Amino acid sequence: MTEIGRLITAMVTPFDDKGAVDYDQAKRLAKALLDSGSDGLVITGTTGEGPTLSAEEKIRLYAEVKEAIGSRGAVIAGTTDNDTAKSIELSAEAEAAGADALLLTVPAYNKPPQEGLYQHFKAIAESTSLPCVLYNVTSRTSLNMTDETTIRLSHIDNIVGVKEAGSDLNQITRIIDGAGDGFRVWSGNDDETFSIMATGGYGVVSVLSHLVGSQIKQMMGYLLEGDVEKAAAEHRRLLPLFKVMFIVSNPIPLKYSLNHVGFNVGPMRLPLVPPDDKSAEKIRDVLSNYDIDLPIPA
Questions:
Q1: Domain housing 235
Q2: Scanning 35, 59, 116, 187, which has its CA 20 to 30 A from the CA of 214?
């Protein structure tokens, strides 16, 4: 199985001034993220405004980003929605385009029961040879995938882990404790990485690694070395930045921040809109307290 790393960035999708995908800037951003600590990249996830992208745009992004970064990092393709058949089709196209792994998100809106979740993810995983990472994000799907279901899925050979953003640390601990051998748990929220890794989690699928990737990696390194005090101090230092990036819906603050610090990623696609003036001022104020790790083009 492809090694996809501990620090994975859920990458934004750059758009040009007319709202078209800026593939050249996406490639530049992907390289810059790897230069500032990321091991892999989720492409066309929530942060990448996946719901507004066509299948053709998604496939081209997987192919172009993978060509740009080569073996330096993993491309994890966000290929699933609440239609199992369509998810299987897009996953096959992503594999053909060169993706290294798939991110399989709990379906929104149709609210399947736990057995439906199991069968949905089992069908997708069995349709591909790629490693698959589950994604539980109750704040966006209004549906929690239970620890029992995740542990059951962990015994499917190419389901290699879960991005847990359900914010139930007890549930996450039970997954870490009960999942099959080699199954990994990545934090799905930057402000929970310290707690999840301290309990035995593997890493994070991060939003803030766009801006402070090397600093997040340092915090993770302290934990892996057993220096909990230093890791905790870094977590506390970074926490205000983690929090302000969700003052309004992600990726609105992140895209605003990237443009503000000089790495142009363009506008968002509707229905997302820029932050209001008060939120933008708060974002700028918090950003001013941090060094930015991302290499900014001259």
A1: 7-287
A2: 59
